[in-house]
């Protein structure tokens, strides 16, 4: 049994801060908050604020990281190399205080293997350090869709074409089969590409990529098996069709209009705005036409979060790492404050809201019986969100993974 003592313990549901708080852990669970329970070690964390472990609802740990090059890695890096690089990405993410992530859709050549499922299993087995990973397997996208890498990287015909098992699917029968394949091999949610993107080499960012019939088929397959569906979608019209098809979560939504925002609020559709990449994504080496697209879209995207929050849309935090580097996930939370959310709303987006989106009730708060996923930061994040970029202590499932010297 271990008791943590911190100068401040934050209740992310109410915003209440408990001074000189105590949290007792037995095994992987919290057993007592506010008073020391039983015998065991007392660990005084000092002048820090203790929070529940943070969650990032959009990362891709199999992409980005040290040694990857945008131009060559897609065609040079084999699955074993990607897995080895993911080890470092996972460790950096956990040490940054993010104890749960959704890995939202591979779009690289893997031979049909779901690398994020394997990564999740390795972390859960304790072979490597990393956050709890909720894997989506391969992103489901049509030929020429935003996450078709032969278009995404403007490859010539025949270069790195993906199979149906790797997510390229057209028509109702194929999208059903692609979803079933991901579920069969361990995906715990489904990622679909429902519109173009800023980095799409063809078409507008907001253009709808799948027909309504195909979207409904994807949602039907996933929901019947108890899985949620997240959709990369920018354009307001494409978002509206995705929401009406039953999509659970919209990623990005950079071109949302007020009518579509209202529909999302009415349907309870989550938004993962990935707003920091507007400033944090390096566009300097992108093709001129993509830089022009970003210059048009990014200013519009800056207004989305405040309008969505005002309308009552549920916000969950996500970075789209490696669009911003792995381990710098807290920059998204800082950016959400700059977009008009209160610090408490932001912390809820990265904890209780994220847990709701995942459909889990065993994390996201500091409470008896929940998983002992905890982080500590200096100062008070309700007053200065930037302290989340200086994580001093990380615990996941009762095990300490990072503890900075006092």
Give a description of the structure.
This protein is α/β, with parallel strands linked by helices. It is built from 14 helices and 15 strands. Strands 1, 2, 3, 4, 5, 13, 14 and 15 form an eight-stranded mixed sheet that branches. Strands 9-10-11-12 form a four-stranded parallel sheet. Helix 8 (258-267) links the parallel strand 11 and strand 12. The protein is globular.
Please outline the helices and strands.
Elements: E1 2-10, E2 17-26, E3 29-33, E4 41-44, E5 48-52, E6 54-59, H1 73-76, H2 79-95, E7 98-103, H3 115-124, E8 132-135, H4 149-152, H5 171-184, E9 190-193, H6 212-224, E10 229-235, H7 236-244, E11 249-255, H8 258-267, E12 270-272, H9 277-280, H10 288-301, H11 304-311, H12 330-338, H13 343-349, H14 352-358, E13 374-378, E14 393-396, E15 399-403
Helix pairs in contact: 5-6, 7-8
Helix content: 25-40%
Summed up, the helix count is 14
Distance between the termini: 22 Å
Number of strand segments: 15
- Class from secondary-structure proportions: alpha/beta
Largest sheet: 8 strands, mixed
Low-confidence stretches: none
- Please state the average pLDDT score: 93
Radius of gyration: 21 Å
% residues in beta strands: 15-25%
Shape: globular
Summarize the helix and strand pattern as letters: EEEEEEHHEHEHHEHEHEHEHHHHHHEEE
List keywords for this structure.
single chain, alpha/beta, 8-stranded mixed β-sheet, 4-stranded parallel β-sheet, 15 strands
Short précis:
By secondary structure, the chain is α/β, with parallel strands linked by helices. Helix content is 32%, strand content 21%. The chain has helices at 73-76, 79-95, 115-124, 149-152, 171-184, 212-224, 236-244, 258-267, 277-280, 288-301, 304-311, 330-338, 343-349, 352-358; strands spanning 2-10, 17-26, 29-33, 41-44, 48-52, 54-59, 98-103, 132-135, 190-193, 229-235, 249-255, 270-272, 374-378, 393-396, 399-403.
